[in-house]
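I wish you would study the pair of lines that follows with an eye to the fold:

===
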Amino acid sequence: MSKLVPLLLLLFSFLILCGQSHGRYSLPEPRLDLLSDGVHRSGTSSFLTLHRPSLLKAESTCDETYGFLPCTTTVLGNLFLILVYGALMYTAATYLSNGSELLLEILGPGIIGGLFLPILGALPDAMLILVSGLSGSTETAQDQVSVGMGLLAGSTVMLITVVWGSCVIIGKCDIENGIARDNKDTKGFSLTGSGVSTDIWTSYSAIIMAVSVIPFIIVQLPQLLSSTAARQWAVLIGLIFSLVLLISYCMYQVFQPWIQRRRFAYAKHKHVISGLLQHLKMRALGRLLDDNGELNIEVITKLFHTIDVDRDDCLSPAELRALIVGIRFDEIELDKDDAVDKVMKDFDISRDSFISCDEFIAGVRKWLNEAKHAGDSNKTTSGSHTTKFLSDFHEQTKKEHDLVGVDEDQSDEVVEGVDNPRRTSIKAGLMLLAGTLIAAAFADPLVDAVDNFSDATSIPTFFISFIALPLATNSSEAVSAIIFASRKKRRTASLTFSELYGAVTMNNVLCLSVFLALVYVRGLTWDFSAEVLVIVIVCVVMGVFGSLRTTFPLWTTSIAYLLYPFSLVLVYVLDYIFGWS
């Protein structure tokens, strides 16, 4: 990054120096001190006038942004400007991303991770959409707002198709028993035997992404009617609904760490239940239930006295801990003291920190009933079938524990304390400020360059912004996702795809809110039926697909990759063949 900034500054200086040039203006009146071309034409200039050459147009004009930034009407010139301004927007996005991560190290998750990080990640896109609708008159804004829609659709489609598929390929591991094994990649590019696995929270993120397209549908439905008032109301309702979804999503992000801890604690609790019941079953020779499916009180009483080492007719925490230490919980690390506390909480009805024989019998009965209800309650649960339903409960518990994800204490990265919090805070603030200022300053010139490039090439602005602009505004997110995926672990794969789903969700709620606010306040026409259809199709397909499974073999990348060209073709066919816009 330190090498990139001087290069960008050099390019920016070069742009200023290479702005519009003007030759000496020749007056039409005759001058004795000027050289004539030998041909006198009354009422016209007698001198040779040189016109600026253009690759595609002979006569055209452009306005310099802010009065000093260069502009051009040539194809190559505008392409150069798009590349330079795009690089500056990429720099802004990188500064925002790095500054956010520094801030997260100091303040931790919660409000910072749930509220500010998603908003800052979508800030460059929101800036471009904002300036595309604020440019000049209403007619100019209506013409340039297609740049904002192209960026919105392009960012969404690129992240959830091209980047998504690339992360699956780069992060692939061997799939065994339906789960990708960490750091094991021996099957090459097997379409069914190699892929990635994620946790259940990633599936929830995919569902949220699919739900986030509802404002698009709300705005689009009244377009089938001819009433202008109905369309304006639809834009307003869609804006309100989009803002509600934005606030709800941010609140979910804020409380998600707490929800995850509660869910993981519950999964660990069920695993303690399963492990203890399996252990008691082995010590009771499989006779926890009698032939009628009722608890075998005699066997449970004998088990109690076996565990009661000091023969005081009650189980102390120390005796419970000795029991739990001897149980193998299928290589899942459990805090033994925490497991003792969970057992005491379930069994110790009198709350005297000891478990009597009656409390032990009541606790085992409660756990066995929970195991029965977790499986098929219609199955016979007599003594001869005790082994089967306990084994099923044990396997179900292991699967649920696996879906929830690894323990928060088993992170892939060692989180170290910040040596100088104040200095790091200042650095993070400066990076966020720099990223915001760069994005705000060069969003408008980039939109103008795209618009001028569209005029010079006769290519619709939507397709230019759909393909080119997301490469500038979302490159940092794409690179970060691919780097995480390359670590080939389930945890990092879950983080990768959760970030992708989250970025698309913020595009669909934050950027759409900005877009709808512009349309409503400036009285612009909502004429993006084909573009909305593309966003809805891609988000719903990938959202439902991502929510129905947690393991993605390599063959799933074909679906993601094919959706990208499908989106471009669909917009072209609907707009330029069927005339939707």
